[in-house]
Design brief:
Helix content is 61%, strand content 6%. It has 457 residues and is mostly helical. Among the domains are: 8-249, no CATH class; 402-457, no CATH class. Strands 1-2-3-5-4 form a 5-stranded mixed beta sheet, with helices on both faces. Strand 4 (75-77) and strand 5 form a beta hairpin. Helix 15 (316-327) runs parallel beside helix 17, helix 19 runs antiparallel to helix 20 and helix 21 (420-433) runs antiparallel to helix 22 (439-453). The longest helix is centred in the middle third of the chain and has 18 residues, at 249-266. The radius of gyration is 23 Å and the shape is globular.
């Protein structure tokens, strides 16, 4: 398993062509696009933005947060109610309020139905297909990733128009930006939060805008920045009774932990510089533990995380990270206890159940295989779009010689990858193998009917 911020459920490797001066050097070699999943970070972001979604009239359970491992400053909406946010943007925010302002703005785009044409194109696609389609077409939200995949579309044929055309799909007009800004101001006002974090973020963007076009962040390519936008937020702050409302201590702690965790995983050298040994705060020790593990110093990493667990024995995320450290160093059997404890402490986190199942399956123990399948079947309720989950389920069912369920899991995998013929074939095999009338048999029929009802792309 690649050691990038816990489990990576999507890894796309494409040969990239230079799009413009943007990232031209890396475009010569091929590039990976990583969508990362982390229960702690996703829960923190949801805690920040759920009040915004509620006043925006959005169902929080219907909005998905997707974290893209990319150092550039970017966030965008695609495929219905899915907000994609780069690790680089999260790490650049200094306070929860700054990040909440960005998310409030993106929520304004969702509530306002902006980018309707692109949404219609992408609504029926899985997250994997969205990223492959945009990447293959030439731009991830206007330049996070440069280049097009040798003229090849995504797994379903994808969007193969010119990069400029794809960029135009994702670019908001100044009218839409203004509308999303006013929506964000309204959401912040109604949730009793300050607009000042958004102003700070816009000033960061303004500095970026002054840089050469080859260096500026892609957020500016899709979110046109004007002095009027900053003035509008400053006016909103001047009349807001919440202008000087500080972030809560709880949110500040959560933000510090999230940023520290990201530094530890994606920039371990910087983390060890930023969070010195003399800093005994929880975020600093957390960052160092992760950075040490990422640097290959497993012994020191375990000593540090064990120190945190001694003080906070009921922190599920510390147990989870400890399990990951052990698992990714070939110690799956030892990782199980840590993952089990994390699941016990946080039974709602389907992502951790998937991690536990992965470790269990790696021990090649029939009892562990059964436990793995139980965890994965529970996780399906929340993570039905996880390719990794279905891959592990297919492996688990195969170990139990359950050919019908193995074929059904492989059909789900094929759907997520847009492989219609393969999905149809596996679903047909599952239908023949499973007892008629059972939920699994019905699902196999549903997959076949779904494929037959969809026009070829």
């Amino acid at each position: 398993m690649l050691p990038v911020l816990r489990r990576i459920i999507i890894l796309i490797c494409l040969s990239l062509l230079a799009l413009a001066p943007l990232r031209a050097a890396s475009a010569q070699q091929g590039q990976r696009l990583n969508l990362v999943r982390d229960a702690e970070i996703e829960n923190i972001i949801r805690s920040f933005v759920t009040p915004i979604w509620k006043v925006a009239g959005l169902n929080p359970s219907a909005v998905e947060i997707m974290i893209v491992q990319d150092g550039s400053l970017n966030a965008f909406v695609a495929g219905g109610q899915r907000i994609f946010i780069n690790t680089g943007l999260i790490m650049r925010t200094e306070t929860p309020n700054q990040l909440i302002g960005v998310l409030a703005h993106e929520s304004g785009h969702i509530a306002g139905g902006h980018l309707a044409r692109m949404q219609e194109e992408l609504r029926s696609l899985s997250t994997m297909q969205i990223l492959e389609t945009i990447l293959a077409g030439g731009a991830l939200a206007g330049g996070s990733v440069a280049g097009g995949g040798s003229g090849r579309g995504g797994p379903t044929g994808g969007v193969t128009s010119a990069p400029g055309s794809i960029l135009s799909f994702l670019r908001y007009s100044q009218t839409q930006e203004s509308a999303a800004d006013h929506a964000a101001m309204n959401y912040l006002q109604r949730t009793g939060q300050s607009p000042k974090g958004t102003i700070e973020f816009l000033h960061t963007l303004q500095k970026e805008e002054r840089l050469a076009i080859t260096r500026r962040d892609p957020y500016l390519s899709t979110h046109p920045l004007t002095p009027e936008r900053i003035s509008a937020f400053e006016a909103a702050a001047a009349r807001s009774p919440y202008a000087n409302t500080p972030d809560t201590p709880k949110f500040l702690d959560m933000h510090q932990r999230m940023v520290a965790k990201l530094y530890g995983f994606v920039a371990p050298d910087l983390a060890l510089q930023r969070y010195s040994e003399a800093d005994r705060s929880v975020p600093a020790r957390y960052a160092r533990a992760i950075a040490l593990y990422r640097k290959g110093a497993l012994g020191s990493a375990l000593l540090t995380i064990d120190g945190l667990l001694k003080e906070y024995p009921n922190d599920p995320y510390f147990h989870e990270v400890r399990g990951q450290m052990l698992y990714e160093n070939g110690r799956a059997a030892e990782a199980i206890a840590s993952y089990r404890r994390a699941v016990q402490l946080l039974p709602s986190a389907a992502i951790i159940k998937i991690d536990l199942a992965r470790a269990l399956l790696d021990t090649n123990n029939p009892a562990n295989d059964r436990e793995a399948i139980r965890n994965l079947e529970l996780a399906v309720q929340q993570e039905a779009s996880s390719f990794d989950l279905w891959r592990l389920l297919a492996a688990g069912y195969s170990k139990q010689n359950n050919s019908g369920m193995t074929s059904l899991a492989r059909a789900e995998m094929a759907i997520l990858r847009g492989q219609r013929a393969e999905a149809q074939s596996h679903a047909a095999t599952a239908e023949r193998s499973l007892p008629p009338g059972t939920p699994a048999w019905q699902r196999a029929q549903d997959i076949k009917a779904y494929i037959n009802s969809r026009p070829a792309r």
